Automatic annotation (TrEMBL):
EC numbers: 2.7.11.1
Binding residues annotated for ATP, in chain numbering: K45
InterPro entries: Kinase-like_dom_sf (IPR011009), Prot_kinase_dom (IPR000719), Protein_kinase_ATP_BS (IPR017441), Ser/Thr_kinase_AS (IPR008271)
Region of interest called Disordered, as start-end residue ranges on this chain: 343-365, 398-427
Keywords: ATP-binding, Kinase, Membrane, Nucleotide-binding, Serine/threonine-protein kinase, Transferase, Transmembrane, Transmembrane helix
Residue intervals passing through the bilayer: 371-392
Compositionally biased region (Low complexity): 408-418
Pfam families on file: Pkinase
Gene3D superfamilies, A to Z: Phosphorylase Kinase, domain 1, Transferase(Phosphotransferase) domain 1
Domain Protein kinase: 16-278
Organism: Cellulomonas iranensis
Protein name (database record): non-specific serine/threonine protein kinase
Amino acid sequence: MTARREASAPPDLPGYEHVRVLGLGGFADVFLYHQHLPSRDVAVKVLLAGSLDDDVRARFQTEANLMAQLSHHPSIVTIHHAAIAADGRPYLVMEYCSRPGLAERYRAERMSVAEVLRIGVRLASAVETAHRAGILHRDIKPANVLTTDFGWPALTDFGIAATTGPGAQAMGMSIPWSPPELLAERPHGDERSDVYSLAATIYSLLAGRSPFELPGGNNSAQQLVARIERSPLPAIGREDVPPQLQTVLERAMSKHPSRRFPSAVAVARALQEVEAALRLPVTPLDLTDDVPPAALPATGAPADGVDDDATRLRGIALPASAVTTGGEEEAATRARSVVVGRPTLVPPAPSAAPAPTGVPVDAPPRRRTRLAGALAALVVVAAGAAIAYATLGDRGGGGQVAPSESLAPPATGPVAAPVPAPHSLSGTRAADGSVTFTWQNPDPQGGDRYLWGVLTVTGEPTLELVEDATVTVPADRATGEVCIQVSIVREDRASSARPAQGCVP
């Protein structure tokens, strides 16, 4: 069995106390520290000692500078500090997001359409803010969206991001959420590449899988690339997902960039229209200098005579070597929160209509957004809301539109103790080629089950729940080295902070 590498030694940082490991990557590890003054928990991302070449240092410095430029946004992880430890390793001190991130949630639970729409609008606002600053993210995916203590999505990991000037080059991207132009022999992309990955992430939250993944099928890198390049976007497969939302995602993930939404803010407005059509509270745009809507139909093809190049950032040239397929190499500098608590459903809202002032009920608790931006968002969708009201009829008393779900983030309460990972994970290969893995539960409780999956080149295994602490990978799936991950899932759906991983040659 090949053991997963141990975390690097946490550096001794004056004014900080090390608590525990949060995550491991190919070039950096992330630790939880407690800062003494001001007193708070922070996530500290530290470069590995063996990765301190000039290129990696430059990427690390770029990530710190880019995230610092964008830290004011409520849906982008805040950078507090960057420095070099006494042992020579660079580190970033970042906002600690304690709730389960999207990577931990989207395969383990069925996320409501209303919540996904909220997340989509907020992430689109974050991406638009980056684009207006001249920054392309280039690796938007569920694993790079954390969740703040107040339940807001927070985009992180700008480790392979770049400015949009000449000579900007990519260092890697994740195949399942990458657009065709970044997987081509001569990769190239602009802000519409981020639009594709943003939509692919929203699709994953609804479908519980990456867009072109076949459950139980061949999901090798080669097959995924072929589907991304040639296959139509599969239907999400949920009766509660309206056709209008499927249409929005199909346009945003068009094979050719010219047929996509020209900007992230255009995606946000299209999602707002879906909210209005469903008679949900409309999520405001978090933009400090929002502009009027572009003269484009939000969910259809570009209007005749409209030059969508007018709103594009300058293109970037990406080397073919930039494409990665997953694993620790793909997650080289990922700063992701892996502390998993109890997934909290947003409680239903009272039936009363929103306050007549138009002030959104979900103004972010950790930062104030300008009221003008919120009001502009409501004006944008007013026409769509009126049409939806006339079409769907009066569902609430006195002509009021009763939201089916509150936008307000769930109230915070005591943080539950993290669920431990299984230990003593080991496997044996039988004569027929199959591999049987076993493990132990360090703290067994009634109703415990186990979420496991075979690790593949995409880094996104298809997960299954089992009752017993053993699984067998059949021979046809056990060619070569076989690696799995296993988490403990409590009866209340809380799961391990970090899955156990193990391999058999």
